[in-house]
Amino acid sequence: MNQWTKTSAVLLALGLVTTSVPHDAQAGSDVAVQQQQMTEEDATAQLASQNMMGVAWYQNSAEAKALYAQGYNSAKEALDEQIKKHKGGKKLAIALDIDETVLDNSPYQAYNTLQGASFPDGWHEWVQSAQAKPVYGAKDFLKYADEHDVEIFYVSDRSHEEDLQATIKNLKQQGLPQSDEAHVLLKKEGEHGKTERRDRIKTEYRLVQLFGDNLLDFDEPKVATLEGRETFVKQHEDDFGSRYIIFPNPMYGSWEATLYNNDYSISAEQKSELRQSSITYFDPETQQLKQGAVK
Ligand SMILES: [Mg+2]
């Protein structure tokens, strides 16, 4: 039984309970509270199910693989240039985000969308299982960089305290080079963002390329709004495809947070409404473009 069916069954059962205790005010209010919670649970499940197409595209489209190939091919070309230009001094280094940049966590996203769950439900179990496969093209590119004496850093916001050993195990099992404690830099408790870790790499190495599926893998946009993030892209237009390599992720990311004004604590129903009002559609009747409105 999936989460959706299970929830419906529980609601049905609750309806029966309500009619069987009509004079018990306390029991009635308990049921009302439970029903309210179930409604939020249903809204959460509905919200999660909206991610089905994102996950299906990510897992099944050859186009997603082609985009990874495009990113890693461009990266190789740009890295070759850097290697050619390099005349001693600090050793060359590159820094890659892990999730949806090197490792494919879409089976975890698929769990969420099918079961009506949301991050961090089940994330720890997924990471500890160390079953993620590399994204298309990552392994070949990283082996190439390794063979050309480039230092490789994996800079990820996975938890240093909880996830380091399992992450290293996963990267190693998949044959990804330099996946050891010196090169896998996860987020320590109290740390904010990746800038500090990137700066640390720069003290010893010439950091020539950054890889990610999120703008934050490159730098922090000044303002974390849709406009602020677009300004960031405009400012760095010439970096993409050479110094910055970006990969596709329609399943989650900071782009989603901007829809909620960076507040994930709002209800599932509010999130759904904000998603809807963020999209622009063509109205065939008026021949006009309109903003998605909540009915
Ligand atoms: Mg990522």
UniProtKB/TrEMBL annotation:
- Give the matching SUPFAM superfamilies: HAD-like
Q: Per UniProt, which keywords does this protein have?
A: Lipoprotein, Signal
Per the UniProt entry, the signal peptide is 1-25
The record's section on Gene3D superfamilies has: HAD superfamily/HAD-like
Database matches in NCBIfam families: lipo_e_P4
Q: Which InterPro entries match?
A: Acid_phosphat_B-like, HAD-like_sf, HAD_sf, Lipo_e_P4
Q: Name one Pfam family in it.
A: Acid_phosphat_B
Question: What domain of life is recorded for the organism?
Answer: Bacteria
One GO cellular component term of this record is: cell outer membrane
Asked whether the keyword Lipoprotein is assigned, the reply is: yes
Source organism per entry reads Staphylococcus muscae
Q: What is this protein called?
A: 5'-nucleotidase, lipoprotein e(P4) family
Which ranges does the record mark as transmembrane? none
